[in-house]
Each structure stands twice: as C-alpha cells, then as structure tokens.
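Cross-posting from the chemistry board since nobody answered there.

I work mostly on the small-molecule side, so proteins are not my area. We synthesized flavin mononucleotide and want a rough idea of how it might sit in this target. Sequence and SMILES are below. Is it possible to get a predicted 3D structure of the two together?
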Amino acid sequence: MSDTKLLFEPFNIGKITLKNRVGVAPMTRISATEEGFVTNKMVNYYGSFAEGGFGLIITEGTYIDDKYSQTYYDQPGIAFDEQAHEWKKVVDAVHSAGSKIFMQLQHTGPLSQGNRFANETVAPSSVQPKGEQLKFYLGEGPFRLPREITIEEIVDVKNSFVDAAKRAKSIGFDGIELHGANGYLLDAFLTEYTNQRNDEYGGTTENRVRLLVETIQDVRKAVGEDFTIGIRISQSKVNDYTYKWSGKEQDAKIIFGTLGKTSLDYIHVTEYKAWKPAFETGKDSLVVLAKEYSQLPIIANGQLEKPERASEIINNGHADIVTLGKGALANHDWVKKVQNGEPLEEFDPEKVLQPTAVIKDFEL
Ligand SMILES: Cc1cc2nc3c(=O)[nH]c(=O)nc-3n(C[C@H](O)[C@H](O)[C@H](O)COP(=O)(O)O)c2cc1C
C-alpha cells in the first residue's frame, strides 16, 4: 500500500489553500454552445469532480479573444463579459463542493481547427504545422499554413490574456493557468522549429521564452498579488508527440530559470510519463528540472492515476500537486475512492469521451 497521507494534505498555492494535492488536468470537451457559452452539461461535469473530492480543477483550454485564439468549434470562451458571466455557474458549483478552480487560458496560434472569428491562423512564423488536425475534435486533413504574427498583434495577444484573466478573476475563479504547452501559440514561440523570427521574440531560448514572461508580467500587473497565476509547459505537442527541446537540460535551465524569476505561482509540467527522464542524456524528469531551476511550486501531470505513482512524486518532493487527465475522466471521484480504499475504474475512451474517441490523439 502506498503512503497517500501527504497527497491528501492541504497545499498553499499563491494566496489560496487547496484541501489536497490532487487536481483535474485541463481537458477540452467541445461541449459549450456555438457562441462559446457554458452549458449545463459543463456545470455538471466540473461540479462532479469537486463532489468527488479533487482539491483543484483546471478548466479546459478557453479562448481569450474574438480574433485568432479559438481552437475548436464549440470551445468555451472568456472573450466577452457575457461569456464570463455564464462561467460563474461552474465556479459556484465547484466552490459549493469545497474545491478550487483555475481557468486555463488558451491562444491556439497555429493549431486552430475551428475558429468562428477568423479564416486564418497566426504563429510566430509561417511554418506548416506537422501532422493533421485532431479527428477527435472533428478536424480533418492538414492544419492551415499560419501567417507570421506582427509585433502589434503580439501586443494584442498579451492584452487579450490580461482581459481574459481579469474577467476570470471578476467572476470568482481562484486563478488562471496560461496554456504554454502542446504546440499552441505560447509554446509555438518557445519551440525552435515553429519560431524562426529574427526579432527579440526569436532565435535564442531566452528570446523564445520572452512572450511567456511578458504575458505573465502583464497579467500579474492587472490582477494583483492575491490571484494565482500558473503556466503549463510541455515538450510534446498535440501534433508532435515526441518533440524534445534541442538544448536539453540547458534549455530547461533557461526556460524554468527565467519563469522562476517572474511572479508566477506555479508551473504545471506535462509529460507522457511524468516520472521518466526528460532527455536521453540525463536521469532527471522534466518535473525535477522544473523544480530545481524555477524553485516554484510544481504541478506534475502524465499517467499519475495509480495512487502509488501520484503519492511517490509528491512524497519524494519532486512535485507539490498532481493532476489527472484520463484517470479523472474514468473516476470523477478518484480522491474519495482512494481515500476509502475502493477500486478505481480503468480509463475506457468509449465510455467517458465524446465524440467517439481516438485516444491516440492524447498520448501527450
Ligand atoms: C480529452 C482530453 C482533452 C484535453 N484537453 C487539454 C486542454 O484543453 N489543455 C491542456 O493543457 N491539455 C489538455 N489535454 C491533456 C491533459 O491535460 C493531460 O495532459 C493528458 O491527458 C495526460 O495526462 P493523463 O496521463 O493523466 O491523462 C487533454 C487530454 C484529454 C484526454
């Protein structure tokens, strides 16, 4: 039997206290209305994780403006006050069951496959995205060739993150998480092959992390000190699972070291298997490197649904919180079940995902 004691103890992140260290990972549902409004289905979905004992819920990636940020049709937005207003139902459902909730703010960048506001995509550089659109989200064929985003538009993007964060705060979210992972806009800036810019946002790793840092700084200025701000970081992308930072540990040092000097409250690290070495050349996982170089609280994600895996990464001090994706979908009451010593359900895409799942799309 693994020692799950610490896993179920409270943890302070930013200025808030989580009742335990187990969270739900951000997971896109495409179950909002066409106009990006929250539906009752979403209220019930998020509420049920809170009822099931999770201390923290991070929402699905939510688009931030009416320009180029939307990723999928029927994705929820927080681009307008009216959309924010509807999210309050989700916040209230989660809070009334005693959990905390962060909103994941997403700008899709090159990987949009359904944006009702635009017929083109923007990215750091005009580079054809690898792979094909995700069938799971009803996409088909190659991604569009993005247009290089201008400096003026980069300012717009930062402002959109700021406005979205202010809206999230105003309706009671406990924090926001910038989606800096998986190939979307912020990660596309971070990634060498999608960022071929010659200005201050391209070239060196220090330059490629600049937009992430500036966004964090702008959001912090707007929301104040008492609102939790995190960022999600990965190496892999939804359209390039096996990608690794070419500068390996040196890149990790620069990226996490730079993020650690900002006013961020946490880094959420996602890898296919959170405990595995990040690079062939060393033994440390990305989670360990993130903690070492940033000195910030770390949320770990990636196949941690076995209680012994989840507690090991917390007990050995590598991470402070774990999030579960597929394990949470299969067990909305994962926390209660583990606390009561009840058996867990295996993840079965047919049962818990809609539309018909192509689960390999999510082997991140
Ligand atoms: C259905 C589904 C939707 C997802 N949507 C998002 C998302 O909106 N934002 C994000 O950062 N990751 C997203 N992911 C990735 C998960 O947050 C998580 O990193 C991944 O499932 C691996 O964790 P796991 O092994 O616990 O499932 C999604 C994963 C799944 C299965």
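Reply from a structural biologist on the board:
Welcome over. Reading the output above for you: Residues 25-28, 60-61, 104, 179, 181-182, 232, 270, 301-303, 305, 324-327, 353, 362, 364 surround flavin mononucleotide (CB under 6 Å). The CA atoms of residues 299 and 322 lie 5 Å apart. Happy to explain the token format if needed.
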